[in-house]
Specification:
This protein has about 200 residues and is mainly beta. About 10% of the residues lie in helices and about 65% in strands. It starts with a helix and ends with a strand.
Length: about 200
């Protein structure tokens, strides 16, 4: 009896979190995979890996965070050739999700982000790394397009210290194999570069 009561109470407690999202859309997940950045005007490209996650903390609120580690292409300078430079980026923030109908959620998010580059040596000279703090805000929709496909589209603005702020667009889709496992792909468009991510996602 106690076990049945405990199970019922657990289900009732979890119900508001599940009901707050459109059908087929989960704010509880973790994903990891391949990440790449393609710069415009023949500038340096980079690739590596990334991990992202999200967790519902209230019926209409969730927290999120992510980390990526990429390395640029090798490049030449006036004093010699430089091996690729490591670039680390991470972010953390909070989001609000509001169900527009049974398939579509309106989502707004605000977050803190940081970018760091390692130092490097060329021609016997050492150059230190750099780091920059920033923030971003974005809004858009997530939708359960079919029982096995979810899509999302976001528009946002990000700003780092010592760098002019930029508007961006972010679109993605997840193909679901079952309630737990799927593959997510995303493209982010910013003035000057485009970034990509693809990898498995575990929802819970």
């Amino acid at each position: 009896m106690k076990r049945s009561l405990l199970a019922a109470l657990t289900l009732l407690a979890a119900a508001p979190l599940a009901a707050s999202a459109a059908e087929g859309v989960s704010y509880n997940y973790v994903e990891a995979g391949y990440a790449a950045t393609s710069a415009d005007n023949n500038s340096l490209d980079a690739d590596g890996w990334a991990i992202n996650g999200s967790a519902a903390i209230a019926p209409n609120f969730h927290i999120f965070g992510g980390y990526s580690g990429q390395k640029t292409d090798d490049f030449n300078t006036a004093i010699g050739r430089v091996d690729g430079i490591d670039v680390d980026q991470w972010n953390v923030g909070v989001g609000y999700n509001h169900e527009l109908n049974s398939q579509v959620d309106l989502v707004t998010r605000v977050g803190y982000q940081k970018a760091e580059t390692d130092g490097y040596s060329v021609g016997g000279l050492n150059f230190g790394g750099n780091d920059a703090d920033g923030w971003n805000v974005e809004a858009g929709v997530r939708a359960g397009l079919t029982p096995n496909i979810e899509g999302y589209a976001m528009a946002g603005y990000e700003d780092y210290e010592r760098v002019d702020g930029e508007f961006y667009g972010r679109v993605g889709a997840q193909v679901k194999f079952n309630q737990t496992w799927g593959v997510n792909g995303e493209v982010k468009f910013v003035d000057g570069y485009t970034s990509y991510f693809v990898g498995p996602r575990m929802s819970f």
